[in-house]
Amino acid sequence: MKNVVLILGSLALIAVVGMLIFISAHSPQYKGDISLQGLDEEVEVLFDEYGVPHIYASNETDAYKTLGYVHAQDRLFQLEMMRRVGTGTLAEFLGADLLEIDQFFRTLGIPKHALESTEYWQNQPQSPWKLAAEAYIAGVNQFIQEGNLPMEYSLLGETPREFTINDVHAITGYMAFTFAMAVKTDPMLTKISKELGPDYLKSISVNTLPEHVFIPNFYPEKTDLDSTQSKSIIAMLDKLPVPLLEGSNSWVIAGSKSASGKVLFANDTHIGFSSPSVWYEAHIEYPGFRFYGNHLAGLPFGLVGHTEFHSIGLTMFENDDQDFFLEKLNPSNSNEIMIGNQGSPISSRIETIQVKEADAQEFEIKETIHGPILNPVVPEIAASTENPVSSWWVYTQEPTRALEATYKMAHAKSIDDVAQAAALIHAPGLNIMYGDAEGNIAWWAAARLPERNPASNSKIFRNGSDPDDQPAGWLPFTENPQSINPPWGYVVSANNQTDTLSNGTLVPGYYYPGDRYQRIAETIASRNDWTVEDLKTLQLETINTTHPKNVQVLLKAVSSDNFSEFEGLSEEISNWQGTHNLQDMAPTVYYKWLYHTLRLSMSDELGMEAFETYLETFTMIRSTPLFLNDPANLWWDDRNTEAIESKDEIIQAALNQTLAELETQFGENWKKWEWQKAIISVHPHPLGAQKPLDKLFNVETYPLEANAEAVNKLAFRLNGEGVYTVTSGPAMRILLDFENVESSLSVLPTGQSGNRFSPFYKDQANLFAKGKYRSQLMNRSDIEKSSENRLVLKP
């Protein structure tokens, strides 16, 4: 018996030691000394209590080389996933299940465009941003060569290849795609118009409605700026191992409306939930430069960040920068399309896609003068027409200068410097938000805006053979929507429609109705003594005032008899003010009732797959009030019956099904149908889809007061199950007062590190879920008090 005990004890000890060795071999190094090749001087990195690196260097290239190293040790696998998507090489790394995603992104042209941008980059003269970017890449590569790789590589039996400037451009291309709403929306709207008729679009907000809220412009005096196989696309994109960038809020308040008399700045970018979350924070200092930034994996310069002088934030512009051209083949030459009476060639190339543990796949990509033909990779397009459909996308029309733009914004010395940098961004469309210590506030809609034929609808497939409906020129950047030091004292952007341009036109796009913008703008306008502490309440608000109005429309269509078995429930939801407190019952009823109302109305015409696609687009969110209020809405009739159903009949049937399902789901007592029982909050890891790896990598938090169109935007997909997983939300929350920049606040949804063995992997998850904040430290003495980890990088 003693021998057995000794043997078992020895085996347990060996297992523990082995596990400790495995963990140590895959953990980041936060203290001690590391030799970093190419440094001119020693660099000190202090990691604060949340793992944020504070980098102190003697020069710029040393600082960015160090940033590359520490960024890689915390986020290398995330960087790997981002570059694999952008280069169309996921199948090589993860297997054949990702082949169709590689085919899609290669056809769309992101890897090809990355190569073109890399060639442009290499042909440009040396510059500070080139030197800094190359230093960052060198730091990433030294970690790849010498550092402790994250355990995902061991689990997959893979090792990372060298990181390159082309990978940076590929990641930028993926970011641009995540903002391109057209590929998810236009095929569906074209299907409705073509198969059902344009009258079916009357109850859907294809374009911005007069009742939607517009962002007002306030132009400054003109400045001289350069104008330089899944069954659906949604199902395919669900396989992506990286999150989509989806929306955002930001506002900047002038000193005239703040208690401190200084500018206040707020930003919360809305991005798909993931583990790790998207942003990586880093504070960099070298002589003449102090910057606290939020970085995407693989990008050297913070897209969001601040210095003592200025702060930069962003939201999605949501402008329509992708058109689809329905081509007409030349009847005498199938390798040409017709434009008027003239033939235009179709080019073709073969790309080889490497597939893990399988044979390489050759894939043909065809292009017209308008762009790549998407029929082979977008199921909705293939099902809608036999004619080629080409994608014309602003992003692929010229090389990206995103690195130059983001470097210049971070290093800006004036508001004009930021305007000049914003003008370099051609796509994706971004709302650049700005505030500074001199009291300036500003917003620029940064994008190349194409001149389109005013007679065409950019959201319906355009006629590729029409000579008068071809891509034209660009509007000058000075005409872009913007607001510079407006007299009302604040700028706000929340993905809603911008006001008319100086030529009287609206920029077409995929804008949200403006609920969030209106709530933010009206609240800010209501007082002149704002503080950072006060702004927390606004940034965390989960109220939506449109939902209760929709409920009233639904209630008018039913009678009290429908609630006979649930005494008091109709009064409960009738009195709902749009809150999403975890103890509320009304949201639980509303979302299921809305789902069944839309399903019973639309699935008979669209089919369930197309209906589910509709629910995934901006169109559903901004169309619902119009849809519900229209008694002549053609969608109300069920095509599967001889009778012509009315609005009231459909809404009553939806309610009956809703109540029956909720009773089964949560019990007979409706007072126990609490919102918290219907909400799940999970931040999924790319490997977390495989059990039991979900328990190891995914980060699950407390239930959230989820509301897709509250200021605190926590989105989920409508479904018939009545259990909603939050799919996206604020990827950070930032609040800053220029009275004391070193006391700015933020929080991340999970943590700084993407390394599962790091103590900073999910240490902010419950802070985020509970609406708490932490400091963005920039004061050396405060950082030293917060830091137990000091890493020194030596030449």
Automatic annotation (TrEMBL):
Coiled coil: none annotated. InterPro entries: Ntn_hydrolases_N (IPR029055), Pen/GL7ACA/AHL_acylase (IPR014395), Penicillin_amidase_A-knob (IPR043147), Penicillin_amidase_dom1 (IPR023343), Penicillin_amidase_N_B-knob (IPR043146), S45 (IPR002692). Pfam families: Penicil_amidase. Keywords: Hydrolase, Zymogen. Belongs to the peptidase S45 family. This is Penicillin acylase family protein. It comes from Algoriphagus namhaensis.
